[in-house]
Design a protein that fits this description.
Radius of gyration: 22 Å
Strand content: 25-35%
Shape: globular
Number of helices: 12
Distance between the termini: 75 Å
Number of strands: 15
CATH architecture of the largest domain: 3-Layer(aba) Sandwich
Amino acid sequence: MADTFTATFGGLSESAPGAQQRTLVDITDVPITAWHDLFARAIEPNAFYHPAWACAVSAHARDARGAKALVAWHPRERNRLIGLMPVTSGWRAYGLPLPFLVSWQPYTRLTTPLLDRDHAAEAATALLDAASTSGARALVQRDHSSGGPAAQAMREAFAKQKLTPRVLRQRERAILDASASDPEAMLHDALGAKKLKELRRQRHRLEDDGEVTFAVARTPVDVASALEHFLRLEANGWKGSRGTALAGDYGDTAFVRVATSALALEGRCEVATLSVAGTPVAAGIVLRHGSRAYFFKIAYDEALAKMSPGVQLTLELTKHLCADASVSDADSTANAYHPMIDKLWRSRLPVATTLIPLAGGDGVANVIEFLIQARERTRRDVRRVYHRLLEFREALR
């Protein structure tokens, strides 16, 4: 008889005789070949669920280690993975000791699951079954694309199982329509003549110190080199001061080096750099999945803030992406209402956080919803007080 095991996961459990029959597994136990194949067939892209990226985050990143995954296999083609949703426990995600799962964020705000384009609704149903089988009374999908085909497949699964999801938060964030035939005209419409004139003046000020150049690293060797420039720029800025820069933690540094290198081998990672007289003054990491690009992170020399090097880099990157026929759009991955990117990239990607009460989980879901909303209100209040204190301190200077 095959060995049977039981693993505890935040009050949940899993039992099965083999890796491909389990529905909740360690993310490192998902067969890589099957995962790669699903990534290539996904009905909606999510570059952050590439196996190399997700596994690097789970192995190294300081706040995201030890992820699990809900998995769905084709009922007849036993080696065909048709659905994958990385998850963590409600305790790790929200500090709540209740039996629920939360879609796992691999160092970014996007948790759209990977669903096989030929079996999307079936995969979505199987993922919900997997969550319920694990013992979870609810599933929280954080920051998932709510207007795309993956969300539609999930809605079909909800209807089939008579589940009533609750939207806890709905936001829209900036996304670039890279199909624009004239990016200069698009930027003019977005910013206006006055703002563009000011940005040109700032660029001329950068040019006072030497030639301004824009380059995109694509090969693994070039990406590794450009990444080090990015890490130094970020560490020397406000994120370094707050201790949140990638270079400020050994695990975060290891994750981003491993992940970008692996994705660069497949042509799925680029690092854009703006330099003055050969010295990098701004850099951005861009990932790709299908025809969508993802502007993962940006860093710039804050000593040159008056010349807006980060904005100058983003302008060049916008033109670069629009000139690439393989890119249809680019997710900013930024917060909603971001003061910089919202003004440049005027299209919007709807993103939601949704609570899904599973079978018999309505009572628990009510408690989870109340506690999550209370937690978010407290965090908003704290941020509001913090920013007011900063404004008061600046007024006293």
